[in-house]
């Protein structure tokens, strides 16, 4: 390829390094090999997710019930709409990237600049959406009770619709206050305390006849098991241990804590890739503006970061499928 | 200069006049596939909830559509279509082989552990 940047004087010398059997420059080939190794890293994570899911195949959270929020549309159940939007943004920024590469082949500096800029914007929108998605996930929505065995009990009304703790539990006076570093031993502190105690939830449940408990276990039809009224009261009194609001690495109101762990780890790792991709894109963007590649008469650097950027998009396609669809 | 783009997709069924045009064509295709996925994911048609080879048919459809998308991203956005066969195989075969192997092992093991909990003596449902 004439896009090779440096001529080493070995052209045509088959045994002196002049032979290019892959017909790709060193940098591009190495980017491909890096992508292979990174793909293996990601598939390791996703396969581990699959492992945990198969291990708890009858009790895994249903993604449609977890990711239902869209910014500015409060209180509406819109599963997958926002994440579909995020996917589209990332594919779109992939398109602008490949258009930048194409413009680079034609040595069209102004077009490369515009398309690189749009790519960066797309990446930023995606990372921002990811942050919002995390914030919503961490904050939680309905709240739940965790049992001694670490299972999650959620609340539904008689029609099977989810009921939030705030709708039927009354918070009383709490004597227990959050331990902070400033008012105790300086190195001991704890996270935010839940709004309610288990006793208050039990009182609330007793006072509302129309509220039932839903366990993690999936029925044959793929819905969560709903307990009868007596079973619900018995279960919560016998096994209820902690109130869970939202999700973190220890507890998760949506179901198995592993789900939250993998969500944070895999989307976090992917989000970090997008972030570093944006940073690299910005560096290349400034190089384009400064005319570095114009002087080289060669835009292969754009092509190389393009490969990385498409790879990030490629990984997202899989994360989207295995976290949100399957 | 890499002007030698192959401008056909779907094995020559659709031909494009320029590389730019091909990019937009692939974008349209990927958007259609994603839309199908999202619509199926929201409505979950009842006939597709039957099980086939240990998984719901719907999930198989999702996985196949994902692989289709991955193919077009790699082949047309990353220009794998224009690379020589040796490079293509080095990248794709290595990754595909190792990933299939890893997935098989981990899912097999996960299913086994589920059986142990389900039918064995270990209890965790309390």
UniProtKB/TrEMBL annotation, chain A:
Keywords: Cell membrane, Membrane, Transmembrane, Transmembrane helix. It is found in: Cell membrane. Pfam families: COX3 (PF00510). GO terms for molecular function: cytochrome-c oxidase activity. Gene3D superfamilies: Cytochrome c oxidase, subunit III, four-helix bundle. InterPro entries: Cyt_c/ubiquinol_Oxase_su3, Cyt_c_oxidase-like_su3, Cyt_c_oxidase_su3-like_sf, Cyt_c_oxidase_su3_a-hlx. Residues 1-326 form the Heme-copper oxidase subunit III family profile domain. It is a multi-pass membrane protein. GO terms for cellular component: plasma membrane. The keyword Transmembrane applies. GO terms for biological process: aerobic electron transport chain. The chain crosses the membrane at residues 30-51, 80-100, 112-132, 262-293, 305-325. The keyword Cytoplasm does not apply. Belongs to the cytochrome c oxidase subunit 3 family. This is Cytochrome c oxidase subunit 3. It comes from Flaviramulus basaltis.
TrEMBL record, chain B:
Pfam families: COX4_pro (PF03626). The chain crosses the membrane at residues 23-45, 57-78, 90-107. The keyword Transmembrane helix applies. It is found in: Cell membrane. Keywords: Cell membrane, Membrane, Transmembrane, Transmembrane helix. InterPro entries: Cyt_c_oxidase_su4_prok. One of its GO terms (cellular component) is plasma membrane. It is a multi-pass membrane protein. This is Cytochrome C oxidase subunit IV. It comes from Flaviramulus basaltis.
């Amino acid at each position: 390829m004439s896009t090779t940047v440096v001529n080493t004087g070995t052209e045509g010398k088959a045994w002196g390094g002049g032979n290019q059997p892959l017909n790709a420059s060193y940098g591009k080939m190495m980017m491909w090999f890096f992508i292979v190794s990174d793909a293996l890293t990601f598939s390791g994570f996703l396969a581990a997710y699959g492992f945990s899911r198969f291990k708890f195949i009858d009790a895994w959270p249903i993604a449609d019930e977890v990711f239902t929020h869209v910014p500015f549309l409060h209180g509406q159940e819109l599963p997958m709409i926002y994440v579909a939007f995020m996917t589209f943004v990332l594919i779109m920024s992939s398109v602008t990237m490949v258009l930048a590469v194409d413009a680079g082949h034609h040595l069209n500096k102004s077009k490369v600049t515009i398309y690189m800029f749009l790519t960066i914007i797309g990446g930023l929108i995606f990372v921002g959406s990811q942050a919002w998605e995390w914030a919503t996930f961490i904050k939680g929505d309905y709240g739940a009770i965790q049992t001694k065995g670490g299972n999650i009990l959620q609340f539904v009304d008689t029609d099977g619709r989810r009921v939030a703790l705030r709708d039927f539990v009354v918070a009383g006076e709490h004597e227990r206050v959050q331990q902070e570093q400033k008012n105790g031993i300086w190195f001991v502190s704890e996270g935010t305390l839940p709004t309610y105690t288990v006793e208050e939830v039990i009182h609330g449940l007793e006072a509302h006849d129309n509220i039932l408990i839903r366990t993690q276990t999936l029925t044959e039809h793929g819905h969560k098991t709903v307990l009868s009224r007596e079973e619900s009261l018995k279960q919560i009194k016998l096994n209820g241990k902690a109130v869970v609001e939202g999700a973190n690495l220890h507890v998760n109101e949506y179901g198995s804590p592993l789900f939250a762990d993998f969500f944070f780890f895999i989307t976090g790792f992917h989000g970090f890739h997008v972030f570093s991709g944006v940073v690299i894109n910005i560096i290349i963007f400034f190089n384009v503006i400064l005319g570095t590649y114009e002087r080289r008469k060669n835009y292969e650097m754009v092509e190389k970061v393009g490969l990385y950027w498409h790879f990030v998009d490629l990984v997202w396609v899989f994360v989207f499928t295995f976290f949100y669809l399957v | 200069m890499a002007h030698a783009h192959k401008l056909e997709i779907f094995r020559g069924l659709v031909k494009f006049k320029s590389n730019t045009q091909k990019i937009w064509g692939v974008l349209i295709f990927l958007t259609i596939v994603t839309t199908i996925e999202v619509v199926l994911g929201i409505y979950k048609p009842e006939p597709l909830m039957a099980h086939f080879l240990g998984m719901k048919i719907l999930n198989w459809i999702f996985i196949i559509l994902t692989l289709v998308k991955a193919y077009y991203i790699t082949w047309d956005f990353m220009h794998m279509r224009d690379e020589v066969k040796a490079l293509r195989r080095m990248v794709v075969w290595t990754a595909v082989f190792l990933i299939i192997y890893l997935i098989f092992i981990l899912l097999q093991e996960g299913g086994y552990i589920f059986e142990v909990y389900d039918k064995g003596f270990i209890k965790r449902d309390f």
